Amino acid sequence: MDFQLKYITPDIKLSCYEDKLFKSENVFEHHMLVWFISGETKIIQADESYIFRKGDIFLIPRNQLATIINYPKDGLPHQSVVMHLCTDRLRKFYAKLDIKPKIIPSHKIRSFDKHPLLESCLASLIPYFNMQEAFPEEIASLKITEAISILRTTDKGIDSILANFEEPYKIDLSSFMEKNFMFNMPLEKFAYLTGRSIATFNRDFRKAFNITPQRWLTRKRLELANYQLSEKRKKPVEVCYETGFENLSHFSYAFKKHFGYSPSAFQVENGRS
Fold it and tell me: How far apart, in whole angstroms, are the C-alpha atoms of residue 266 and residue 231?
């Protein structure tokens, strides 16, 4: 895979994927402001899926599970500028303001369709990626502050997200796992997002489901995969990437072991080869 990642600071980067597809599953520690230069991205969350293309600008809230599939498009690589809005920097920003925003937990991605102020702010970063010397932190700080200020001008409800500094607290494990099992995350991440240590997570999981987390996750993902193949009429490669499997080979092996036939054989049998 031809993949390039350039940082001008730890919080500002330019990413470029030139292969046919790049898939990742993430839970982001910081809010991420993204501007697409070229290519296409599909982002899958528990409740919703999004498609973003050239010129789109959006914000992914922190501590949210997501499957991200990046594609080159129209002969151009998948290329984007990404700005991390870290908690420490946001604390300092909001400490100077005499406001107390109402904190409303939000899992949804915020989209800012080709907004000229945001686009100008993020586009101005492009020349800096070719610098040989270190990018001055004071300039980086100014650019991030500019972006935050534009977001607050553009979206009157953004403070409820950016000024929310709470960490995950102990929540109902069963409901969370039923909603998020399709994300291929380490168990430690699931534990963190449900407000538990890994030991407490494993204990509570067995108590709730009477099975180990890994066996339960595999079974749930296979059941969802079978549904998507049979009812949604999706292709095996799509199903693989959207149900939490590492790759198509692993998915095919697990599917055949569980159901007795491969995903491709299922397609042929149902006249969808």
Answer: 12
Q: CATH number of the domain at 3-162, please?
A: 2.60.120.810
- Opening angle at CA 4, ends 8 and 242, nearest 5: 115
CB 100 within 8 A of CB 66: no
DSSP for 10-46 reads: TTEEEEEE-SS-EEEEEE-SSEEEEEEEESEEEEE-S
Domain locations along the chain = 3-162, 173-269
173-269 carries CATH number 1.10.10.60 = yes
Stretch 164-193: mean pLDDT, rounded? 91
pLDDT of residue 1: 46
Q: What are phi and psi of 108, to 5 degrees?
A: -80, 150
Taking the C-alpha atoms of residue 49 and residue 98, their distance in angstroms, rounded to an integer, is 36
Contact, 204 vs 173, CB < 8 A? yes
Residue 111's alpha-carbon distances to 13, 45, 59, 203, in angstroms, are: 19, 15, 6, 39
Per-residue pLDDT, 266: 75
Q: Is 95 left (phi over 0), alpha (psi -120 to 50) or beta?
A: alpha
Write the pLDDT tens digit of every residue in 201-233: 999 999 999 999 999 999 999 999 999 998 888
Rounded (10°) angle between helices 173-180 and 198-209: 90
**Could you tell me which residues come within 8 angstroms of residue 41 by beta carbon, excluding any fewer than 6 positions away?**
51, 52, 53, 68, 69, 70, 71, 78, 80
Specify the amino acid at residue 30: H
Specify the pTM: 0.80
Which pLDDT does position 51 carry in this prediction? 94
What's the whole-number mean pLDDT along residues 156-165? 90
What's the confidence (pLDDT) of residue 269?
66
What confidence score (pLDDT) does residue 200 get?
96
